[in-house]
Here is the input.
Amino acid sequence: MMPDSFFSPPRRRTVIFVAIIGALHYVALEWLTSRASMVPLGQDHAQVVSMALIAEPPKPVPVAPPPPPPKLQPLPEPRLPAPPPPPTELPSSEAPQLAAPASDVPEGPATTEPAAVAAPVVTAPAPAVAAAPVPASAPPPPPVEQARRYKTNAPASAQFDLHVDRRDADGTKWQGVAAMAWDNRGDTYQLKLEVGLSMLITRINLLVLTSEGLIDDGSIVPVTATEKRKGRAQTATHFNRDAKAITFSATTATVPWQEGTQDKATVPFQLAAIGRADVNQLAGNIDILVGEEKEATVFRFQLVGEEELETKMGRLVTWHLRRPPKPGTYSSQLDIWLAPSMQWYPVQIRNTEANGALTTQTVTQIRVNDATGK
Here is the structure.
């Protein structure tokens, strides 16, 4: 294209028009720029801050609650010393208890050592674990009641026949016979008691007691005693004076031995020996430690008085001794009648049980082997 044609009249008008428009835009832009620069800087910032406060007010900052104070572990309770073990009860149908009576043993103030208190623990306790039950250990044997010591003079050897009357708790009555053999050999003895029913040609023994031991200074000192009841195995009681212990075949219990200890069979003859040595010893309580089938306890006899007793041997003047029931020890009553005119032999024995059953053995004949006995 040639320059002449480019600057032709129609084209010149277009170029001029475009130039004018561009100039107007430039002028307008300059004017707007100058107006914007006239706004104060501080005022503009104030408006911006004001708008920010109105548009979005500040939110309160949440305050966390203070942590709770740690819980202190409670102080452990002080462990008190274990109470003294209760007195040991030896196995028996009457549950005897070996304990000195209040009149014989002075009571002293009980002393207890203070228990140590553990330091407080503030750490969290460990989870509780169920402890397995600990088997209770066998308590030590209780103190033995000390029986009195007596002067004694054992009676001479003799054979006894006795009549037995029995009344059961339900009122049933029956009769039987008993034979008792007392053999005093001076420094040793043997004793046997058989209680049973007499049949036409035989006798059925319901109870057999035996005892053997020493005669020491006129006193009966059992060494071995046995008991055999119908339908039950025989049991034995051993009296070891050297070891000062009483043991039983029917139980593992052990009871301390003491001077004057007897068994069930020898008790009536030991009472006779006490009366023969000095009748005044029968006044007041008469205490004798007695070893039985599974136990040992102190029998306390009391003098009831002088009584006349009707027997097949005639009327006998007797001294009546009684062992009444002793709460917590034995529940039966034992009565023994001694005949002073016949070496203080036992001529009647009666046992009254707690349920009311009554057994009475009364002498029908006595054959003395030593006529020189006092």
The longest strand covers residues 296-311. The helical segments are 3-6, 9-37, 41-55, 267-277.
